[in-house]
Fold:
Amino acid sequence: MTALERITERVMANGNPEDRRVRTPLLTLEEFFDGNDFVGSIGCNLDSEPAPAEFYELLSNMRSAPDVSDIRVQVTCVDDPGNDWPFSDTVWIFTNISPNEIAARFPSHLAPDEVWEGWIPGRSYDECEVREGHRPLAAWWD
Structure:
């Protein structure tokens, strides 16, 4: 199975993630980035047009900080399942620090447009463990 086939199967397991009745996939960094060389699969509206490997390095380093317990990549849509890499506009960071502190950890050329605390009301998400004292922060790219 190719990396594209693997991630397509994982993301589409409950239906198309664009359908808001479907649980939103939250992938580990390894699930989203392993085999991903599709520029624009994350941070597509950034002027710097970063490669997925650049995001993976940044987020892996961020995840290793003592005040971050996990990072998950939300899959927002799959334009052409099986042919295009799933797209993400949001990364969830599980931490005990503020949205402003997390935003400051992104270099300017990879900075999200907004960082906020808490899940989006009315949406369901893949289950993932949130360490006691931590909460989900969304880093979102428009």
Notes: The radius of gyration is 14 Å.
